[in-house]
Amino acid sequence: MSDHLILRIVGKFLIPYILLFGLYVQFHGDFGPGGGFQAGVIFASAFVIHTLLFGLESAERIAPQWVLKIVAASGVLIYALVGVAAMLMGGNYLDYDFLAADPIAGQHIGIILVEFGVGLTVASVMMLLFFTFAGRGEAS
Amino acid sequence: MILEQLIDIFLLVFLAIISIAVLRIRDLFTAVMLFGIYSLTSASLFMVLDAADVGFTEAAVGAGISTILMLATISMTGREEKPLKKKGTMLPLAIVVITGATLVYGIMDLPPFGEPDNPVHTHVAPRYIEQSPQEIDVPNFVTAVLASYRGYDTLGEVVVIFTAGVGVMLLIGRRRKRKEGISNE
């Protein structure tokens, strides 16, 4: 694909906006449609476009697989630790009321953190899946 | 109202046509593209039902990522489907007809579509709608339900996605490393 000049330029132009839209969906999920799952997929799709246009090696230089593996695991860990934090503050597991002095503020903190964990895991797992498949295709 | 029903009918007929086309077509590349269109049409259907979050997910995951992953798979396996061996068609036909008749019979017991006193609208939904502004104060109920009321379920879903990633890497990720090792020697 590297000699498709128009695709490369249009892709280069679109990628930052896709990333920005992913972040918007991530942090605007409390107010409109969206959340960690959708944001993660959109964020990963920017890297898919990059891989299609500039090749797997270039994409893996930006997001190496070992980093993605750590990020994928830490997303789940963030989610689970929010639950443990709620327990340590005196509530039940994943009861965000106890994360702050004011229950509603606690709920907001909990939801933002949890959605952040979801976004990290979904984005990195989607990228890992695509890189694994693309790597197989290139190798054979 | 009539316009809305027309849109519903149009989209549902479109879904039926696409699924029949997917079954009939032997070229896998076309089938994958049709699956993408199927997902996009379902996303529009969810939007007509005012389920913006579901439509969003369907468009991003169904039409976006899974299409890409299936294309990546096709690039490894080849794009022509193997021709089917002709076997007896009576038994499968009978199974399909009986299952379909059972499902249609089951539909007759469903409450009428969209009625406000349906069980689904009288169980936990009113509590979420009435209490979540005081309890959670997030404008989007869906996020409140997903991340807070149903926090356990969402944690489970994230673990499922993580497990799927681990599974794929264990199954087809390792082979590549071994190949690299051979080429390094």
Explained architecture:
The complex is a heterodimer of chains A (140) and B (185). Chain A is mostly helical and 140 residues long. Chain A has one domain. In chain A, helix 1 runs antiparallel to helix 2. The longest helix of chain A is centred in the C-terminal third of the chain and has 37 residues. The model of chain A has no long low-confidence stretch (mean pLDDT 89). The termini of chain B are far apart. In chain B, helix 7 packs across helix 8. Chain B has three domains: 82 residues, Four Helix Bundle (Hemerythrin (Met), subunit A) (Up-down Bundle); 27 residues, no CATH class; 62 residues, no CATH class. Helices cover 79% and strands 0% of the residues of chain B. Chain B has eight helices and no strands. Chain B is mainly alpha-helical and 185 residues long. The radius of gyration of chain B is 22 Å and the shape is globular. Classes of the chains: A mainly alpha (140), B mainly alpha (185). At the A-B interface, helix 2, helix 4 and helix 5 of A face helix 3, helix 7 and helix 8 of B.
